[in-house]
Automatic annotation (TrEMBL):
GO terms for biological process: secondary metabolic process. This is Long-chain-fatty-acid--CoA ligase. Residues 1-34 are annotated as: Disordered. Residues 1-10 have a biased composition (Low complexity). It comes from the Eukaryota. The keyword Ligase applies. Residues 700-776 form the AMP-binding enzyme C-terminal domain. PROSITE patterns: AMP_BINDING (PS00455). It comes from Trichosporon asahii var. asahii (strain CBS 8904).
Length: 802
């Protein structure tokens, strides 16, 4: 149909003006009406025809072109000038099963006389009039719909640091949504659904809203009986800003750090800072970050070895509620490119060593969406060609007073919207077999450790007969300041959450090491009067065995996890330091550190175990293939659940879905839970040696080898065999001053092992076994070397004894 439009039809919010619209004329009594319809249907606007077409089709009635008595109609009042009038015809009875042909509808509407107000069988229809004023814009419509008091009312809220419009009357949660609606319509049919056990769509069950509601309530009660709700620490800090502010201002006069200088390669060139000094430097750096638009939720990368600059950078980022991305600075450049490209931080803070690496690929980092690189120390030793790509944060760097005021007050950058479920930090997996995965942790997950770390001591006190008051005091910082050796890198979950957060909570002096050296560690223990050591078992073992440590040096606590310790380590600690409390804990990056742990007599009696789960956490053992939950003493893969579980792997939904199912993280560690509820890790699933179809846990072999007092470290790895697939081999290092041949070691181990688990080859390292930056033994490196030497030995001396 043709129509004439005004010149304004192309503007948003306008509509065509039709020259011959349908028009209703009011009768003298205001109720009787006549209809004037143009004889030429081309003058009728398409909007009016479309509305009428749709309605008359749906009614299934075809109005006749004959005169009938006029119906009483309700007037809508006077029409505004230029208004367009449209009618909708409504029949009070049910519509017919079929639609009236469109041609019949058009014919009825466009006859030269008014349409009938009666159906063909004499039933009256009602004419509903709608005034069609010029079409309002979407903004005008939204303003009318969303005005205060309506169901569509809008309010503004700060979410994730941004001002967001939300529906004011939206349900708070799905519990409210379901309860309000399902109880309202309890008698209505809600579901017609195929029965679960049937393959046919015809075998169905019908349920009302009320029936579904009652069944849901009953199932929720069943779940409640199984305690699958989440438990969290009620008094844990909300975010790291609160954690640092409360504790660092409390301990302002205490020494916080004894740390190597960033530009120095020596552990002896150190600086000492109090909690107050570190706090003020962190506040100033946070203000500098604010001047660069860093706010709550912004990602900022930190790269470097343990030093004051690293610690100050981390605290500064946390003061803003921003998200630190913690780079493993020991990774090769390709891996660091991957980590930064994955997280896309707005800027990078690093030490000179890391600045040299990242500065050489600055253009590629920019191409991947990574912000500028800034070094917290002098770049004088950095290659001039690289130095131009890195900015040096010289002492006394300028900051605005506005940003300083914001940082001190905690206002103006979105901190008020940071909750326990907000993003807290990004840690990276080791990446020994593939590129590291970025683990996104929440504030709650990370800060759960602050309270959980006191539980092993509190439990041990009560297990030894102490009172509840004595046990609760285990969480309180002692009046006399202690000192801990922090040799594990801060970019690792053990160093950061396991040790740093515990040290700050207890107001301890933290003695940093940049690189591990047994000799340097022992010197620091003596010079700094260190009473707490650990991290990974290798650190505790090395210090324990060192002949350089004075015999009268007293240790108060030794805590370790992250790798299986030698079975004899607990007994060795008790023998050397009878008053020291040894703690064995289990956790991983995906659990934000500590998940299980115990200390004292329970650990000494069960040295192969890592204790029970924390009160807010859960653990279970599942079948490696089916993930079916197994019972006590049945070996399988351990899964962990609790408020400390990671949020996701960044930009890796497939890996996240595989690792996280219904909140349970699949660890990949072979374990069992004994009758006491203690978790016993037997191996990494991928480290199991399969000999002729029989699984041999590497820990089984290693514990037998460690029984030989000459052994400092060992690692069991597979070597290839054409008949049985794999055989057992071992790489070892010896204690200082000890001597042993491979044949001696094999003979000693064979006496303690079942036949399939006995090593067929042993390689004795001249020095310590290879480790990564976290202190963990790198089995992939040992496996490569041992297999190479084994195959060479077979070629020269014949096949191995099976």
């Amino acid at each position: 149909m043709s129509s004439t439009t005004s010149s304004s039809t192309s503007r948003k919010g306008c509509r065509p003006e039709f020259s011959r619209p349908l028009e209703w004329l009011s009768g003298s009594n205001g109720h009787d009406r006549t209809c004037r319809v143009p004889s030429d249907p081309r003058g009728v606007g398409p909007g009016e025809l479309a509305i009428a077409h749709s309605y008359l089709q749906l009614t299934g009635r075809s109005p006749q072109g004959t005169e009938r008595p006029k119906a009483g109609l309700t007037t809508a009042g006077a029409h505004p000038p230029g208004a367009m009038v449209c009618t909708l015809l409504d029949i009070s009875t049910d519509s017919a099963n079929s639609l009236t042909p469109l041609s019949s509808v058009t014919c009825a509407l466009c006859t030269p006389y008014k349409p009938s107000l009666y159906t063909s069988d004499g039933r009256r229809i009602r004419v509903i009039e709608r005034i069609m004023a010029p079409t309002p814009s979407y903004d005008e419509v939204d303003a009318a719909l969303c005005r205060p008091g309506t169901i569509f009312e809008i309010e503004e809220k700060m979410i994730r640091g941004c001002k967001i419009k939300t529906w004011k009357r939206a349900p708070v949660h799905f519990r409210q949504f379901f309860e309000e609606r399902m109880t309202k319509w309890s008698d209505r049919v809600m579901l017609s659904t195929p029965r679960a056990e049937s393959l046919s769509e015809e075998n169905r069950e019908v349920l009302t809203y009320g029936e579904v509601w009652e069944r849901s309530v009953r199932l929720a009660a069943w779940l409640r009986d199984r305690e699958l709700d989440d438990f969290v620490w009620k008094r844990a800090p909300v975010h790291f800003r609160q954690f640092f502010e409360e504790r660092m201002t409390k301990w302002s006069d205490r020494v916080m750090l004894s740390t190597p200088r960033a530009e120095s390669l020596s552990e002896e060139n150190r600086e000492v800072l109090t909690y107050g000094e570190v706090w003020e430097r962190s506040v100033r750096l946070a203000a500098w970050l604010r001047d660069r638009e860093v706010r709550a939720g912004t990602r900022v990368a930190i790269g470097g070895r343990n030093c004051a600059g690293w610690m100050i950078s981390f605290i500064a980022v946390c003061l803003l509620g921003a998200v630190p991305v913690l780079l493993n600075s020991t990774l090769i450049v390709d891996a660091q490119l991957h980590c930064l490209g994955l997280t896309k931080p707005v800027l990078v803070l690093c030490d000179p060593e890391n600045a040299s690496v990242l500065g050489s690929v600055a253009s590629e980092l920019t191409a991947r969406g990574v912000g500028p690189i800034h070094c917290w120390s002098s770049l004088s030793h950095v290659d001039p060609a690289v130095r131009s790509n890195v900015s040096e944060l010289v002492p006394g760097f300028a900051v605005s007073s506005k940003s300083l005021d914001e940082v001190r007050s905690g206002k103006g950058f979105g901190l008020e919207d940071v909750t326990p479920e907000s993003d807290c930090m990004v840690l990276f997996t080791s990446g020994t077999t593939s590129m590291p995965k970025g683990v996104l942790e929440t504030q709650r997950a990370c800060l759960t450790h602050v309270i959980s770390s006191s539980i092993p001591a509190a439990r041990a006190i009560m297990r030894m007969g102490g009172t509840v008051e004595m046990a609760l005091a285990a969480h309180d910082p002692p009046e006399q300041q202690g000192a801990m050796l922090l040799a594990v890198p801060l970019f690792h979950v053990t160093g950061l959450l396991g040790w740093m957060s515990r040290g700050v909570h207890m107001g301890m002096k933290m003695v940093f090491m940049k690189r591990w050296s047994t000799s340097a560690a022992v010197k620091l223990c003596v010079a700094e009067k260190i009473g707490v050591i650990g991290g990974v078992p290798a650190i505790a073992t090395a210090i324990l065995q060192s002949p350089e440590l004075p015999s009268d040096h007293v240790m108060e606590g030794i805590t370790y996890g992250g790798a299986p310790p030698p079975a004899r380590l607990a007994a060795d600690i008790q023998k050397k330091w009878p008053a020291a409390m040894a703690t064995h804990a289990y956790g991983m990056t995906e659990t934000a550190g500590l998940h299980t742990g115990f200390m004292g007599p329970d650990y000494h009696a069960n040295p192969a175990c890592v204790g029970p789960a924390m009160p807010v956490d859960e653990q279970r053992i599942v079948d490696p293939e089916t993930r079916k939950v197994l019972g006590p003493n049945q070996p399988g893969i351990v899964e962990c659940y609790g408020p400390n579980i990671m949020k996701e792997y960044i930009d890796n939904p497939a890996a996240t879905a595989d690792a996280l199912r219904d909140g349970w993280v699949h660890t990949g560690d072979l374990a069992l839970i004994d009758d006491n509820g203690f978790l016993r890790i037997t191996d990494r699933y991928k480290d199991v040696i399969i000999r002729g179809g029989e699984n041999i846990a590497s820990a089984e072999v290693e514990n037998a080898v460690y029984a030989d007092t000459r052994i400092a470290e060992c690692a069991a790895v597979p070597v290839p065999n054409n008949v049985l697939g794999e055989l057992v081999a071992v790489g070892v290092s010896l204690r200082p001053g000890a001597t042993a041949t491979a044949r001696d070691i094999m003979a000693q181990a064979a006496a303690r092992l079942r036949a399939p688990a006995r090593p067929v080859f042993v390689h004795v390292y001249d020095d310590a076994l290879p480790r990564n930056a976290n202190g963990k033994i790198v089995k992939t490196d040992i496996k490569t070397l041992v297999q190479e030497l084994y195959l060479k030995d077979i070629a020269e001396n014949g096949r191995a004894k099976l």
